[in-house]
Structure formats: C-alpha cells, structure tokens
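Margin note from the TA: students keep mixing up input and output lines. Inputs are the sequences; the output is the structure of the whole complex. Example:
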Amino acid sequence: MAFLELENIRKTYEGSPLLSGISLEVAKGELVSLLGPSGSGKTTLLRIIAGLETCEVGRVLLQGEDISRLPTHRRGVILMFQEYALFPHRSVAENVSFGLRMRHQSKTAIRERVAEMLALVSLTGFGDRNVIELSGGERQRVALARSLAPEPRLLLLDEPVGSLDRNLRERLLEELAAILRKVGVTAIAVTHDQAEAFALADRVALLHDTKIVQEGRPETIYRYPATPWVARFLGLTNLMQAEIVGKTQLATPLGYLTYAADNGFDGIGSSGTLLILPWGIQITERDPPCNGFTARVVRRMFQGRTTKLRLAIEEEMLDTTVDVGSVIPEEDDAVRVWIRPEALRWF
Amino acid sequence: MQRKAVSSMRRRQLGFYVLMAAPLVFLLIFYFYPLQEIVRVSMTWRDRLQPEVLWSRLWASSTRRVIGFTFGQAFISTVLTLLLGLPGAYVFARYDFPGKRLIQALTTVPFVLPTVVVAAAFSTVLGPRSLLAERLGAGFDLRYTLSAILIAHVFYNYTVILRMVRGFWSTLDPYLEQAARTLGAPPLRVFWEITLPLLLPVVATAGILVFIFCFTSFGVVLILGGPRFATLEVEIYRQTIQLANLPLAAALSLVQIFFTLGWTLAYTRLQERISRPLDLQPQWVTQRRPRKPLEVVFLVMNLSLMAVLMVYPLLALVLRSFGRGLQFYIALFENPSHGIFYVPPLAAVGNSLRIALLAMGLALILGLLASLGLYRQRLGWLVDALFMLPLGTSAVTLGLGYLLTMGRPPFRLRGSVALIVFAHTLVALPFVVRSLLPALQSIQPRLRESAALLGASPLRVFIEVELPIVWRALAVGAVFAFTVSMGEFGATSMIVRPDMPTIPIAIFRFLSRPGALNYGQALAMSTILMTVSVFGFVAIERLRPPGTQAF
Amino acid sequence: MKHWLILMLLLALLLMGCAPATPEPTPAVTAPRELRVMTHGSFDISAEVIEAFETRHNARLQFLDAGDTGEMVSQAILSRDDPLADVMYGIDNTFLSRALEADVFVPYQPEALADIPDAFVLDDQFRVAPVDYGDVCLNYDRAYFEDAAVSPPQTLEDLTDPAYRGLLVVQNPASSSPGLAFLLTTISAFGEDRYLDYWRQLRANDVLVVDSWSSAYYTEFSGGAGSEGARPIVVSYATSPAAEVHFSGEALEEPPTAAIVAPGTCFRQIEFVGILRHGAHRDLAEEFVEFALSDSFQSDIPLHMWVFPVSETAELPEVFATHAVRAESPATLSVGQIEQNREAWINAWIDAVLR
C-alpha cells in the first residue's frame, strides 16, 4: 500500500474541469514533482491534499486513512507556499516554532527543535530576526524550517524556489533537495519548470489538460515523452508529420528516414507525428550509414557549454546542440548531418 | 560646475518659496491668526492677559463635565462602531456575493452626508411618529437622548471602519492564515494569533479616526441631542451664539484644539504604519462565495444590519420629504407663512452654490500651488503637516476664531460671504492637497527629465507633462472641495449672516421651527443636499486614480 | 485638450465669482435708504404698517431674523464694532442687562415715551425704549385635563406632584427667553436657596427641556391647534389661549388651552427697542423708534406678536379683550438682580437639570 494515494480526483473551476480523474501514489520518503504549465491545476491539487480546497469527486488517503473530510489543521500535512507566507508580525524563531506550539510541545522541546531546524537550513543565530528583513533565500529557508519542524507526515511545496532569482534558484534547489533527502520526508513539490522538477524529484508527474499525462523517472520522461505535447513542453521541438512506409522506412518532409524498430513505430501505412530528439541530429564529416542530409545553418546561438544550431533541411527547421569542444559551423555554412535512427520517436 | 549646481539649487528653493507664498499667507491669516486670538482671549480677563484665568475657566465643574461627556460619548461611539463594523468589514473582505459592489457603494453614502442631513434623517426614524414608534407603541421617542447620538455616530462612522478595515483585510495575504492552518492551528487560533495581530494597526487607525469624528461631533449632538447634551463643539457654539461668553468659548476651543491635534497626530503616525506594504494580495485571491449555511447566515445578518442602520433612515428621509407629494418641495419656492423675514429657501441653494464654487476655486488654486511647492521640495514635510492642520481643528473653533478676528480692522469681513468662502476653503484645502500631492509624487522624475531633455521649459513641463497626469487628481480635489463646502455646518453656523443662509443652515433652522411644513421643508432640502453630496462622491470615486485611498 | 477646456471653464467660473456680485449703484437722490432691523424669530407686523413707514421716510425696512432673543443679543454683542443691523427690536428685561453691559446701544429718548407708563421704563439712560410686554406662564391642554381625572395644576409646587409626571415641557433658559423667564419665576417663588431643589424635583418628575419656545409649544405641547406633541403643560404666554381662538378659523367660543395666572406663577417680559452703536442712518433709526411707539404700530402688535402694547393709547382688538389675560401679580426680580446673577443661575440650573 502506498503512503499517499490520490484516488480519481475531480475539481471544476468556474464551470470548466480543472482536474479530472487524477490518481497518484507516493511511497514513504519519496520526492515527487508535479510538473505542468501554469493554470494546469497543480497548485489546486496540492491545496486539495492539504484540505484548503475540496474536490467534487475522489479521495485522499494518507497511510491508508481517508483524510478527505479532515479539516486542514488535523491532517498533519504541511504546505509551504510559493511566497512562503511567513508571519510578518513574528520573529524567525516564532515562525519556526508555530507548528510545534500547535502540537502542544514543551517549551524546552520547542527551543531545541527550533535550534536544530535553524541549523539544518544554515540559519543558526537568525532566531530573533524580523522576517521582513530577510532576503528571498533566507525566507525560503525559514519557510522550510517552519514546515519541517513539526515533522509533517507529508510536506507539500508550491513552487519552492519559484519566487527567487535565477542564480539563487539553482543553488537553493540543490540545497533543498539535499535537506529533504536528509530528513527523509515524503514530499510533493509543484513546479512549472522542468529543470527544477528533474533536479528535485525521484519521480515526476506531468499534468496537462486536467490529467496526469505521464509519470516516471525524469530520464525516462525526457527520453520517451508520451505525447507531442509533453515533447513540446520539455522543449523538444523537432516535430513533423510523417508516414510509416516500410519496416524501417518513414516518409517525412525531409525525405525518407530510417528508424529503429522499437520506440512505438508500428503499423505500416499509418501516419503520425515524428519527433527527432536533439541529440539525434549530429553534424558529421564522414558520410553517415543512413539518414544523411545536407543542411544549412540558419541560426547559431552561443549558450556557454553548448551552442544551439537551427538547421534547415529542405524547408524543415531542426534544432540541435553542439558541444563547446567540437567545431562549430558559422551561419549560412552548409553542413552534413546524420539523423540517428534510435533518436526517432513516433506518436 | 559647482557654482552652477548651487545656483540651480537656490533657484529651486526660490521657486519653492514663490509657489508656497500664497497658500502660506492664506494659512497665516485665516488659520494661525484667528487661532492665536483664541489663545489670547481664553487667557484674558478684564482686558488683561492672565494665563491663570484659563485654568479657573476650565476647572469649573460644568466645563469638566462637558469634557468628560465629549470623551465618554466618543469612546462609546467608537467601541460600538468597531463592534458592528468589524464583522461587516470581514464580510466585504472575504466574501464575494451578488450586488456586492452596489452595497459597498451604498454603505459609503452616510459618510459623505452633511451632519444636518443625518440629523434630519434620524429625527424621522427616532421620533415619536416614526415607524418604530408605531410598532413599539406610544412613548417611544429617542430624540434628545444619548442613544440617538450614539446611533447617529455609528451610522456615520460604520463606513469608516468598513472601508479602512475591509480595504486592508481584503488584501491581507490569505496564505498567512492558510499556512497557519496547515501548520496545525484551528480556526479560532488562526484568527487570534495571525489575523487579529495583523489587523490591529488598521483597526487602531480606523478606531482613532472614528474617535476624532465623534470627539468633534457638532451637528448631530446639537440637533439630535437637544439641550441636555453638549460636546465641546456644541458647548463652544452655545457659549458663543447663545451666551456671548467668548472667553469661556475660547478656553473650550483651546481644549478642543489640544485634543484633536493630539488625536490627529496619533492617527497620522498609525496611518504611516499601515501604509507599509505587507505582501498584499490581489482581491481575487482573497475572496470567495459564502458556502456553508453559517457563512450565509452571517452574511445576511450583516447586510440586514447595514440596511437597518443606513438604508432605512435615508429612505425614511426621502420618503417623508415626498410625504405630501411635492408640496414640501414646492414650498421651498413659496412664502407660505407670509413671514416678514422671508428669505426664499431657494436663496439658500443659490448661496451654497456660489460659496461652494468660490471655495472650490480658491482651494484648487491654493492647493495646486502648495502641492507643486511641496513635491518639488522634498524636505517640505513640516509644511506638509502645516497644510493638514486645519483637518485637526474643529470647524466651530475656526468659526469662533473668525468671529474674534475678522470683524475688526484690517479685515472687516463679518457677515460677508467672503468670510464663509475663506472658512470653507480652509476646511477643503487639506483634501485638495491630499489628492494632488500623491498624484504629483507619483510622476516619475524621469518623465520630467526627459521632457526637459527634449527641450521643454519648466512651465511647458508643467503644462505638457504634469498637468495631464494630475488632472484627475485635480478634479477629485475640486469635487471634494465643492462637496465639503456644500455640507459645511460648524464654521458656517458661527459666522453666517441671518439673511444669507446656506443649505445646511436653512435645514437647521427649518428643523428647529415648529410645524409639519417646516419639518417637511427641512426634509426636502436635506434630500436635495443628500443628492448633491452623493453625486459629488460618485464623481470622486469615478475620477480617483486607482489605488488611492479616500482617507 | 478636453482637460484644458475643463480647467479654463473652472478658471472662468472662478473669475466670475470673484467679480463683485452686484456693482454698487451710486445712490440716486430719490433712492430709498435701507434700515436694518435686527429682531427675534417671533417678530411680525402688518405689511401696511411697514409700508406706511417706508413711504413716509423714503426708506426700506430690512428685518433680520437673529433667532431667539438670547441669540439675537449674542449676535449684537459679537458684532458690536461692525453691527449687522441699525436697530434692535425685541430684547427683553431678562437679557437687557447683558446688552447694556456690553454697551451695544446708543441713548435716545423718544418723544412718544410720554404715553407709556413709567413702570415699563427700565433704563434711566434711555438706551432702550419699551415697546410691548407679555406674561410668561404655564399653559395647559384643557381637553387633556377634562379627559383625565386630574385637575390642572394651580401652583408651581403642583408640578412636582407625581400626578403631573411627564406632563410638563419647558424651554432651556440658556437659549430661550420664555425659558429664562420661567426660571426667574421659580427663583422669585422659591428664593435662591431653594429653586434648584424645586428643579431637581421637576427633573425627577420627568420634565422635558427643549431649546426654543416654538419647539416646546408646537412640537411637544399637545394643546395648541397646530401642536403635534404629547405633553399637556407648557411654558408659554398668558395670551396664548387668545391666539388659539384667533387662529382657529372656526370661530371658537372657548380656547382649547388655558393659562395659569395665579400670583407668583408668571413672569412679566417687557420688550424693548434700541438703536445699535455704529449703525447707519442714525436719524432714520430714531424715526423707527418713534414709529414703534406710535399708535399705529402699537395697535398692530397684539394680533401679530400676541403680547400687549406698552402704550396706553393703543387700541386692543376684541379677541384680546375677551380671551387674553394678564398675570395678577407676576414674579418680581429687578433688572439689576437678573444682571448680577443670570449666568450663575443658568449654569447652576444646567448642572442641576440637564447634566
């Protein structure tokens, strides 16, 4: 039995469905990311789990117990809000101790636990500070300490680093992942940023159009996106209409392509959407064994370790990246490319 | 290079003083000069300055009782208003329901009504021939009681609590309360530990404002309280107008000034605190429809209270004014009793309009000059406070000061319309400055700088950049000044000429005269004045730049 | 552009407002002179009488309603240096001392004083001249006492009897001259030591205090034809029942109200006319004082102001002869006594009755 079970959850917002038939299982100690574009209802799902909103259909089971009817404060589920919702009239220590006081712990126990938590988030000595004076990163860490202090059964994080600036975000994300793993808390984090989701979680669930469209390990999702929408959402843009014309042959706007037999290709004569993963488009000097094309470099964008190239083959535009170590062609150069059969996906 | 900088700074300072000269001179003559005369008279005995007489005047038991009553009724009124207003503020802050905007607008109406109108309205619902009296049987008569005063004060100030607290509450981050809930706090504990402490500054601020209003209450106490009750304001009026006891009136005014300035100072301090941003959230995040039956009951109870407290008296006023069809209104054009003093009631409308337009114009000019001076010179906070002073001074005190100073050389303005215009201008000036200054300050300096870089002279900058941006604020200030002047009663009652009544004065006189016709005419005129005030207020609301506060 | 227009409009309005409303015309030789007469709200006189004066002296009379007598006197004192009017009509013996003390009048001894009993002439410096008088006394609603099994009160003491609980309405002496007159009656009757006790008893017996005679009589009193109130006893004038008959329009035989004129229960108010210091048209003002004492004016007083003319040669209308009464022996307090104590008495009264 899973630690947390969401059963067939449905929620309507202003007459149109926001979530429908959402089911999800989370194991004890697991870190799951809910990934989806804004407006996909992922925050609402968190609020339903926390008891801040109700769903029309479905149940929330925690350790086998149906908590759907339990009021928020009796669920033992803590939600860390996007803007952290630190109590502005309370000091850092008072914020961290709030949940402990609600659980009627002794003063000494509270003091010890607060010190421990502040140490955990590297804010020792910040106890008496006014939360209004804190920087964004410090606020995030106070919020984390406050959420972890009462040892929640389940921790929910809404865009945990979403309101921080880019540099800070990456650093704090690592820190957050490390702390959560160290504490061993079961947690669901909501984010709209795939990089964040992948960096944080053991498992990612992708929300789109009221449903979970794909769930699994980050690598799997990236390598085998389940739908063209997932591909596009992950930034995989080399999509085109094609038709399977033979056991290994596809008719595409580029011309004929050879594909590797697995990866969902079936049904000769059927047409569908073809995805070429970016790493499958390689610039080469030698003639490739198959799928060799001549392409023109339309645009070149230097991005640091890699350079992004937009290539035109016939009328079709394809994106790929080149490592900093390789020879990078100039714009308008004609190059020879190899499209690797194992990098083709079929929907 | 440096010398140039210095000279440009000098020029700016010079500009500051030039712009400020007119409004400052106005304040000096029509505010500080009368005030110092009040101080002098309060300490004068037999034409000699003897500060110790002030003490004996104030220590008289009758004076102490007036001061005590002023405090007491203001305190009770404030507590009552808070008790009734806070639930209403909650309802408006957290629930969304059909007709909410309309109801919200309606609840603001009382606040913009002149005191005489309110007194007239309540005389129709608290008197022996009101609907209530018919229900409760003979003997019901709340006129001339403390209850009448308190009810009218709650009616008046409910809106203050509602608007200020609701405004703050509705933008108060609901995630704070939700965070407390997920951390394990039950609902009552959330209110006690999170909501209430966060609301406290705004509740205190609104409370002080209500206290100031009740402390300086004049028309309501004078008309609804009858002879038995006197706040400092009323006592100053009685000592002056009925007993011509100027030294005592001046001594009471001194007390009044002392306290109201104190309260006003406390109010401004607190208001600065609540204007500090506090992770405020847009309203759509914070509001929802009431769902549980208990919530609906709570909502309905509050809306009913508003209906009984606000809509009923005003509706009664309007209905009674049409009680004999249009007769009361037609009577405004006639001389039904063929009285010898006949000043057609409509002349009061003309007087009021003329005075209001003049006061508006003067307040706009002075306010614009003052605001321009103030916002260019950042260190002008002291001067800024100077222009707010009239707000913290009671109107009756102002009137007394004018009586003492303006009838003699060099002014010789007694009984002139100009004097009323000046009094109204002074009362309206803070409102004009308050609506103009923030608008001017909101103009990014870059706008002016880029206009200057593009070759615009300072005058052109003003005409082409600043004026188009602030014209709305200017219009708000204008309407404010106009409505304030139309409804002004306290100062006017002290300095008005008997044959040149304004609308509020005419209403007051009609109310104190016997007979159904006089009463009806008072109601008819009140209805007219109410309409003017409400239109003025609607105009202000429409014109006001988004995101600015009324208080 | 539109905004500019609005601003220009505002400025234009402003300029219009600043311009003198009516340019002062240069007075033509024939233009009537305006005499401003400040008086209390109950003043009234026939238009024909006024017209006669205006035609004879090429004048225009402008009457200024200055409120109750107390307010009128205050106004005069407050505007002493630059008065609102040239003449004051209607100041009475209860407020006279205050005005004399403030020195708002200039002396003038009218010729017509010859026809007036000396008893009415209270200022030997002739700063004011008496014009009319009336007795302030208790009035009651006859129908009420016929229906109720109680007889009307006969004395001041009766009013403290529980049988008359909640029946009396009086005026605030601080703001109303009949109110002050009634207070003076009680002081005269009970003495300075005991009058407050009397008032405390009245208070315990639920006396209602209102600010003016008109709200007492028309709003709170039950007896008058136009009255709307519920209290059957009011402080008013001895002539009020006669006025009820006159105004009834139904040719009543008997008035619906009656005045109590028992010895010591009434106070005689004498009203005066005086020329205000620093007023304009001194000669015209003097003419007005003579006019107020003339027979045509004096004979017009009773039916308009419901008080008696001071002149012995004035004619009394019939309704006065049949229904108006005079107090048998009104309370006596000298102007000097009133002057010395009025304020203290009123303040003590306010403390005892209102607070």
